[in-house]
Amino acid sequence: MEQQSNAPSTVLTAGSAADAQQDFKVALVLLAVAVALLVHTLGFPMSGSYGGVDNQWFVSPALFPLLVCGLLVICSGMLLYKATRKQGFRGFGELRGWLGDWRNERIKDRWYVIGLLLVYVYVYIPSTDFYLASVVFLLSLTSRFYYPMVNGLSRSSTLHLVLALCLIAVKLNVNVSEDTHWLSINYDEDAIRYSDLSMLMALMCLLTLSVCFPQNKDRKRAVIQVLVVLLVPLLLVCTFNFLLYVPMPVEYGTVSDFLNYLVYDVLAFQ
Amino acid sequence: MKKIILPALIMASVIATLAHAARPYPVRPITNTVVWSAGGGTDAVNRMIMAEMAKVLDTRINVVNKTGGIAGSIGMNSVLSKRPDGYNLVGISSSNVVAAVNGGWNERFDVWSPFIVGSSPDVISVNTDSPITSLQDLVAHQAQSQQAYKAGAGGTGGIHHLYLLELARVSGVDFQFVPYPGSAPSQTAAITGEVDVVITSMAEQAQLIRGGKLRPLAMLHPEPFELEGVGTIPSAFGLYPELAEHLPLSQAIGFAVHQNAPDDVKTKLGKAFEAAMQSPVVKQWARDNYYQLSGKHGEAARDEFAALESYFTWTLQGLGSNKFSPDKFGIPKP
Amino acid sequence: MLEQFSHFFSTLFALATSPTNLLVVFGASFVGIIFGSMPGLTATLGIALLTSLTYGFGPDVALLALLGLYVGAIYGGSYPAILINIPGTPAAAATALDGYPLTQKGQAGRALGLTTTASFIGTLIGLLFLVTLSPFIASMALQFTSWEFFLLALFGIVISGTLTSPGTVLKGWIAGLIGLFLATIGRDSLQYFPRYTAGFSELDAGLEIVPVLIGAFGIPQVIRVLSERRSLAEAPKLGRILPELSAITRNIKHIFRSSTIGVGVGSVPGIGEDIAGWVSYSTAKNASTPEQQKEFGKGSEAAIVSSETANNACIGGALIPLLTLGIPGSPPAAMLLGALLLHGITPGPSIEVDHPNFLLEVTAIMVLASFAMWANGMLLAKQVVKLLTIPAPLFIPVVGILCILGGYALGLSIFNLYILIPVGIAAYFLGEMDFPIAPMVIGLVLGGMADESLRRALMLSEGSFLPMFERPVAVILLVIIGCFIVNQIPAVRTRTTSFWAGLFSRLARKSPVV
């Protein structure tokens, strides 16, 4: 946020036109969302008795949301008006204006990081061992930004797509119960083993690709990358699990299970 | 590096699946997941009893808090889906029994095998500036003023709210219930004069009564209460014997283990629990904090929770604030 | 009085001369700083963990450890805020606004030196209030009924308009409104009606603030630094970290104002260090001359000093209602109450009867804890700055994992992550379009209180707004809010600032020694 203000404001006129176009879009989206919420909120109970508390307009659960949504409609309307006056509606239909220019490396990287965050949190963490998931996540980022590999973006994206589909398939097909949802945490130990195995295979693929096909060969960087990627998540998992008593999301994941066994049953750590 | 770690991981998966229960329970530290927030009554009771039980069991017991959902449903759900091996306990109170009827989860409370540490009796109080000095005054005063009392208590459907409803039913006093996020804010509201009367437990209120901020009217408990420096607080049961129909519900606080846990684990936990309840530390703590110790576990504790579940859910059904009828879960009427 | 003084110093002396005690307090303060500096590990969680660990110790040692950790954690949150623009705790969110720009200028060391000393002074001033004015402040805090809570929340929301640069005021308001909307998600606490939960029972309790905070500040930073191939800072000058005493004396008026605000906010039950930081930041901005105001958001000394002094002064404030009334003034103080109960100490009006001089003992412990924090800070800061020499493409992915693990660790809930990521991505895009993020966080923090207090107040008054104008504290708050709103109208703003500037210059001429 703040660094924006530090950016040199060259080509002021061109920038402000692009800004107005962006403002126009975001204002329109906000307006649509705010109006939808306002309509939804009107369905809240305005009077009557609920849970033993008498309800009148001033106690209604809709009072505050209506106020907030109403103000949001007004504010985004004002933003829309300002943007329209600066010709912000131009270029509204172009997809590039919404998603960014795909030929730009920075935009590609942006969507790559966002995509990785999404699969990591919504697919990997709830279905597999946290250590394995984190190593894959970390390696995918470092093999793009720290020690880049050849064709990294397309290779890594394909790998993650296959892996994510694989994990979802495992979760929805192995020993499913009625409560199973693709977002819920894996507790079924068979499903966890299958998922961990897929994760391990993906990890090995990625590791091989990154070590064997770098853009610029640099032995030192390769070693640092492998060490950081394998050891830092281990350190984090051990710290949280054994010192802060934070059980990992998938508690019976292969590595977590092994670490628990090693530390408590074998080493008898108390 | 890779050469060492990868085979180790594969070996790990083999060993981890094979190796369990080599030595007798408890080999590992036990995790107790308290479903109410850190610093509250259930949390304090659990931390204290766990520390004592850890000495007996000769292992470490970690107390973590996992709040949220409906009546602690998130914490209970997560513990329920873990291995029923006795390494995962859940810290609960009687307020958790309404989780099912409010849509938090699909279980009856008998999935747990509870251990009840104790409870603190409820007391109804007013601000010290109030002209009201007794329960009789409360009734008489309203007959004159014809105005409903604003009554503060923590959350809708909580135990203090139900006490208020019971009292309103037998005494005929008109209360306007004002919900607060917890007992502490409702007490503060009574001190600032925002509400006229407040119902919370003695454990929560004793300091304010002794400090002259609140004036106790009556105990909502069959026995009067002797409070050091204040004197005897009479029981509302003397004035309204009908209260005994449903009350005393105890505000049961304790912990539970999965009902499917192996019997030897339950026995071992039960023994440790009994030993901990006998320790002078726990007794002193209960005296200092105005708790009445219970010590029920096994069948007795299950019965108590079943009774609480039945009373709570059906009372809320009467108020129309349930999402599902208790019938759906086969909860009998009280 | 004299007797109390001698008791205070004898307690302090006894504590400070025992090597075990010193070890405990330094260790706890160190752990606290680590907790504070890890996004997602909060002071509350730290105290909760330490409560179980210190169960076996005597109450003195346990208190040393707990308060040492508390003070350390509130201070430690400023480290990542300054170094990587991700506040470690909600309390440090305001510090990031000006701390990170300093890092970008290569002055991370100076910023850390400033916060260390400011936090230290803030804690001590908070204590001074605790000892001298606690009965008075406690009685003031008891003037807070639903109306005052509502107005306080409204005040916090109004100040969010001052946290933005003049060009983006409208966007600041929109961000604030989005935050307020996020606060209404969940079952409302008065009628238990589910609002915008889409059937997820995880949403019933509302959004957790810490995951949203991590999402709003941490995730955009991860995306931005990686995709723009940006380095985190100018090569930091690894000189000595100094206490920055001259900067402190320069900003002495900010320090005094901020400590008062910190104590005041802390003593009101239910709100804590995070709000203290924001309120103090914007008050400092409002009280500055137009030239100084331009510095805010670009690495202003006054801004860092204000927010850090206030959040640490808040500790003393939060202890006032805790020790005198048994009502915790902030979330970590609520946990502290649990810990005290566990050790057989029941804070409340009768504590002076049960445990004579307990207040003085706590103060002595706190003095020791703040010294430990200061010493730890001075030693640690230099090492911490070195983190910036790690290449960003290696360091930031690890920060990303830490953010996610931290968001999960709070409440052990994976649902927190499902909230954290969308909030983070939305915050990233909003940030790209010049929307300030801070008002959104303030809106979320205060929205619930505003909503619930307003409706409860109306419920008690049966729909009438009149009681708001009949209560003294409420009227004071109303006047302050009015001043802030009026001050945001440009014409009035230039006039008031010129008035103050004229007044100050006249005063300065009369008394050359400042």
TrEMBL record, chain A:
<feature type="transmembrane region" description="Helical">
    <location>
        <begin position="58"/>
        <end position="81"/>
    </location>
</feature>
<keyword id="KW-0472">Membrane</keyword>
<feature type="transmembrane region" description="Helical">
    <location>
        <begin position="226"/>
        <end position="246"/>
    </location>
</feature>
<protein>
    <submittedName>
        <fullName>Tripartite tricarboxylate transporter TctB family protein</fullName>
    </submittedName>
</protein>
<feature type="transmembrane region" description="Helical">
    <location>
        <begin position="197"/>
        <end position="214"/>
    </location>
</feature>
<keyword id="KW-0812">Transmembrane</keyword>
<feature type="transmembrane region" description="Helical">
    <location>
        <begin position="26"/>
        <end position="46"/>
    </location>
</feature>
<feature type="transmembrane region" description="Helical">
    <location>
        <begin position="109"/>
        <end position="125"/>
    </location>
</feature>
<keyword id="KW-1133">Transmembrane helix</keyword>
From TrEMBL, chain B:
<dbReference type="InterPro" id="IPR042100">
    <property type="entry name" value="Bug_dom1"/>
</dbReference>
<feature type="signal peptide">
    <location>
        <begin position="1"/>
        <end position="21"/>
    </location>
</feature>
<dbReference type="Pfam" id="PF03401">
    <property type="entry name" value="TctC"/>
</dbReference>
<keyword id="KW-0732">Signal</keyword>
<comment type="similarity">
    <text>Belongs to the UPF0065 (bug) family.</text>
</comment>
<dbReference type="InterPro" id="IPR005064">
    <property type="entry name" value="BUG"/>
</dbReference>
<protein>
    <submittedName>
        <fullName>Tripartite tricarboxylate transporter substrate binding protein</fullName>
    </submittedName>
</protein>
From TrEMBL, chain C:
<feature type="transmembrane region" description="Helical">
    <location>
        <begin position="47"/>
        <end position="73"/>
    </location>
</feature>
<feature type="transmembrane region" description="Helical">
    <location>
        <begin position="322"/>
        <end position="346"/>
    </location>
</feature>
<feature type="transmembrane region" description="Helical">
    <location>
        <begin position="12"/>
        <end position="35"/>
    </location>
</feature>
<feature type="transmembrane region" description="Helical">
    <location>
        <begin position="144"/>
        <end position="163"/>
    </location>
</feature>
<keyword id="KW-0812">Transmembrane</keyword>
<feature type="domain" description="DUF112">
    <location>
        <begin position="22"/>
        <end position="442"/>
    </location>
</feature>
<dbReference type="Pfam" id="PF01970">
    <property type="entry name" value="TctA"/>
</dbReference>
<feature type="transmembrane region" description="Helical">
    <location>
        <begin position="468"/>
        <end position="489"/>
    </location>
</feature>
<feature type="transmembrane region" description="Helical">
    <location>
        <begin position="170"/>
        <end position="186"/>
    </location>
</feature>
<feature type="transmembrane region" description="Helical">
    <location>
        <begin position="425"/>
        <end position="447"/>
    </location>
</feature>
<feature type="transmembrane region" description="Helical">
    <location>
        <begin position="206"/>
        <end position="227"/>
    </location>
</feature>
<feature type="transmembrane region" description="Helical">
    <location>
        <begin position="393"/>
        <end position="419"/>
    </location>
</feature>
<keyword id="KW-1133">Transmembrane helix</keyword>
<feature type="transmembrane region" description="Helical">
    <location>
        <begin position="358"/>
        <end position="381"/>
    </location>
</feature>
<keyword id="KW-0472">Membrane</keyword>
